Request: fold
Amino acid sequence: MRFLILVSIYVCFFLFNSVASNAQSIQKISGKVVNRNNELMMGNASVFSVRDSVIIKQQDFLDGVFQLSDINQNEIILKLTSVEFADQFLSIKFSNSSNIDLGSIIVSENNNQLNEVVVKSNPSLLKYGANGNIDVNVNGTVLATSSSVNELLGRVPNVVVADGEISIVGKGEAIIYLNGVLINYERFAAIPVSQIQKIEVISNPSARYDAEGKAVINIITKQNVESGIMGTVNQHITVSKFGGTLYNTLFDFNYSKGKFSFITNYGLQLGRNRELLYTTRTRPNPDDFMKSELTTDWKRRFNNYSNFGFGLQYSFFPNNYISLAYSGNVNDLGGITESRNSITNNSGISFYATDVDRNDVLLNQFINLNYNWTTDKGSTLFIGSQFSNYNQTIRDFIEESSLVEQTDSERDLKNNVGSRINIIAVQADYSKKINEKTKLEVGAKLSHATINSGTDFLIAADNVNFELDDALSSDFEYNEKIAASYFNYIGTLNEKVNFSLGVRAEKTSYDLFTNANGIQKFEKSYSNFFPNALLNFDLSEDWKGHFSYVSRITRPRYQALNPYVIYQDPFTTIEGNPNLLPEKTHAFEIGAMYKKFDFKVGYTYKIDPISAAALRGDTPNSYILRALNLEKGHTFFTSLSRSFNIKWWNSVNTASITWQKSVDNYYAFAFSPVEPQIYLYTNNTFTIPKLFKLQLLAWYLSDRSYGLGSENSRSTVTLGIERNFFKDALKLNFTANDIFHKFMVSGDYNVGQTQIYYHRTYSTDYFKLIATYNFGDSKKTTYKKSEVEQTENNRAR
Reply:
């Protein structure tokens, strides 16, 4: 603790008192691209850093005119590229003005002489931002061979994916944005990796971003302007000794002509997967002794796991367009869930076996209608609307047998669940660019969510005469309205310090009805304000720093509020908690960046943090797995990152230490000494020219104790090899993931006189072969998919 405080004081002192260079820098560059006949050309303008060849800014142009702002470099390389003319490179240094107008740039006919330079280059994987954010390049790197966006994020530094949650080391759970607009988890999972340009990890989101989530991951797709046809076909085969074999077929297609653009994609996953959970629950008190050893084995069969979508766009002008998009996914899940529970108590030993024949079908559908306008001066207006629909049907058949005091008994059960979620949302965002360094952002959003679900749990001793079990059956209704608005101002104090100040206001009102455990009705309304502040220090070309304060909220997911029962065995159920409160977070961070070294230290305070635990039920041996609110939480973290990129080797390396303490005095948790957690990450790509690429990725999370429990270490090591054929039209990749099968989530905690240990194993140890074929007469596409912010959809999981 003292070390972190001293480091923070030192960094603050250094940032405010360092003697910085007085050199000016290039802020804006513009020009007009014409051929020898003075005809306007269409193409792309990119600004590269001279030091590491990282793309700083990029813009497409249709009418020959380009303008790139916020460059903040002393020397750059400008690249102009198009199928209409040969690539042209210009080296530009700062002279007397920070705003450079290149006038008319005459380009030559297309001869592709310089294309080999681009093909042979090794793009930098990572770029650190002075505000604490990082940009991860996907296109052109081995990361682009990931089967899904979920797998891709699991390979990104500082991002941890486990138990259906995506979190940032030291920050907590993140929300997902697509091209700057919030999307839901199902939509996120359906994004074709082949369309992703880069990923932004935003540790300190401003008021412009929705207050739901402690951090933001923004996925940027490829958005270029040349007309034509482009498509990609991917076939993945994944073989795991533990989980089985999966087949993934992915297809995306883009067509553009004139002012119209069309995009569509389809993905199908078939095969098997597996997840294994071993849990012990022990009450050591001799008067109330009990030990339960429970093994739950999810042997999943994907009958039809598919996602699909299409979109239409009409561009009135290059930066003025309207778009309509429809997308969805079908998850038809089968297979068997096997539970084996051995219970020892003062009465003896009993054994229970439960086999669940899964028949779960989920259909999600989304419709978006959006309008986007960007002025020549850089101001933007976005107006969007969205309708989301979730339909889930569960028809599980359960066979249960038990051995108690040498007596066998059997019975059959049916779990029938029907659930529907409808969400309507409208949103407007306006950004006013006052000058090159000053911007005003305002926006508003309204959403309405309606959830209806019913559970009928039936029991029969003869597999014929099923009767309704009222204790395990219930109905649930939930209506929620959220109104939000935000204000964010970006400006400068002087040439070396810029800032962002904002506030987001949200009002939430909801009513809830359930007849589980008796009729319960709730009506609540609450308002929240979320201030945000960010200071950036541009001390010199090599030294940069930042300070940030961010306040956020995490509302419970709808399923966590629904008290319906997920049945595992006669003594183990998963139930929702309608009394859950939203979690509030206040986060502070100080950072410094020297060349390619990035250092951060931060503190996060949580109020009513949302957690989960196994609590005792109504009978002596029964337990309910339920989400709950703790009292408060404290997190301190510090991290150091270093990346480098040479001709044949690209390496990203990160090390961090997190100290987390959870506090609660209501549920009778047993307190334990806090132990920090170490996170180590390395990602290395080795390029052998004209032959192949090799990738070595590894990360490690050490043991930790957070006061109310502890978690054991986990790690992964992944090796991959990739080669292109037929002028890069065909790409083959072979990957060995989690070679030592060490990605296992395990830990223990004590609550209510019960000691609980858990150990969860996933199908992460696999070998995967990927074949990717690119076709078409264009390397670029124009469809710009924007969507309404979908916080409510994230909670529909």
Observations:
- The helical segments are 2-17, 115-120, 149-153, 185-189, 558-561, 791-794.
- The longest strand covers residues 407-435.
- The chain has six helices and 47 strands.
- Residues 1-23, 111-121, 779-793 have pLDDT under 50 and may be disordered.
